[in-house]
Amino acid sequence: MNTDETLNQQLEDARQRLHDLYEEYGFGHACVLEQSMFLDELINQYNRMFQTRKQTQLV
């Protein structure tokens, strides 16, 4: 599995976990907020990777 596939799988797993936690605990619970921050960081990582790749292609 390459880096793109691994990151995409991590994103999907984190998104699903966030959804499950939200369904169980509601929006304001600490574990939901923590999972949301974790997902945000994965999204940021994905965006940085995409932006770097885009800039490399322009050069």
From TrEMBL:
Transmembrane segments: none
Domain of life of the native organism: Bacteria
Pfam families documented for this protein: SpoOE-like
Protein name: Enamine deaminase RidA (YjgF/YER057c/UK114 family)
